[in-house]
Amino acid sequence: MGEDWGQPVVIENRAGGNTAIGAQAAARSAPDGYTLLVPMDTTMVMNPLITPNLPYDALKDFAPITLLTKNISLVVVRGDGPRTIKELIARAKANPGKLNMGAGTVTSRLGALSFAKSAGIDVQLVPFKGSAEIGQAVLAGTVDFAIDSTGTSLPLIQSGHYRALAKYSRRPVPSLPDLPSLDVAADLPGLEESSTWIALVAPAGTPPAIVDKIHREVARIYADPAMIAKLENVGIFPVSSTPAEFDAFIRSETERWSKALKENANVKLD
Predict the structure, then answer these.
(1) Hey, CA dihedral for 41, 116, 84, 162, is it positive or negative?
(2) Please, which pLDDT band fits residue 267 given cuts at 50, 70 and 90?
(3) 118: Cβ–Cβ under 8 A, 6 or more apart, which residues?
C-alpha cells in the first residue's frame, strides 16, 4: 500500500490482552482511513465470546474491510511419532486419558477438542501461548501431538523434526501436496475446518468510499501471482473478501464457535 500510494505505512504492534489492547486503541481512533487494525479470529470472535468486560465491541466498533489470510492448521507429531492419523487415533484409544494434545489459540484449542470428540478419543488438552512453546513440547515429548499452524510447522516438517499427519482443512497446501485432510484421513465426515485467520478493519464510521478504496487495493495486491506464491511458500494463505462478505463471515464464525464453546463448557480455554 505504501509503495502504491506513495505514503508511509507504519506498523505499530500493541501487544497484550489477547489482542484487546490493540483493538481498543484502533476502535478509539479517528474514522478517517489513516488508522487500521489487523485483527485475528481471537480479536473478532473469541474474545467477545469468552472475555468479560471487553474494552471494545467487535461488531459495533469496527468497519469490516476484508479477510487477509486463512491459516491451515496441521495435526503434527514428532518425527518419530505415528505415521498416520488413524495410527494416532488407535494409540489414543488403546491408552485412554494418557495422551496429551497441544494447541495454542482458543480457536485451535476448540478445534483440537472437536477432533478428539469426533474421533472418540480421551486425550488431555494442554494449552500453550504460541507455536514456539508447542514446538518445544512436541520435540521434547511433553505432548504426543498438536494442532499447529502451517507457517510455523513447515520448517520443522521439512527438517524432519515434525511429521504432519493431516491438515484441518480441505484447502490445498502447495508445499504439502499429498497431505490428506483430517476429516477424510480419520474417516470423520462432518468435521468442519478449524483455522485461524487475519483480517483488516477500520474504526466504525469510516466512510464507505475509504473502506472500498482500501478493499480494492488489497484485491489488487492479491491479484499478483508472485505475491500469492511468496506467501504460500511460507505457509501463509491469502484470502480476500468484500466488506459485506467479511461481515457475514464474522457473524457465522461467532455462531459456530459459540456452539462449540457451549459443548465444551467444562474446559478452561482462556
Answers:
(1) positive
(2) low
(3) 186, 188, 190, 191
* Rounded Cα gap, residues 16 and 21, in angstroms: 6
Distance CA 63, CA 75 (A): 34
**Cell, residue 176:** 504439502
Whether 263 shows a pLDDT value over 90: the answer reads no
Residue-wise pLDDT tens digits, 223-255: 999 999 888 888 889 999 999 999 999 999 999
Q: CA torsion 257→49→264→145, rounded to 10°?
A: 70
**Interior/surface letters 180-201, b for 16+ CB within 10 angstroms, e for the rest:** bbbbebbebeebebbbbbbbbb
| CA angle, residues 161, 164, 168, in degrees to nearest 5 | 145
Residue type, 44: M
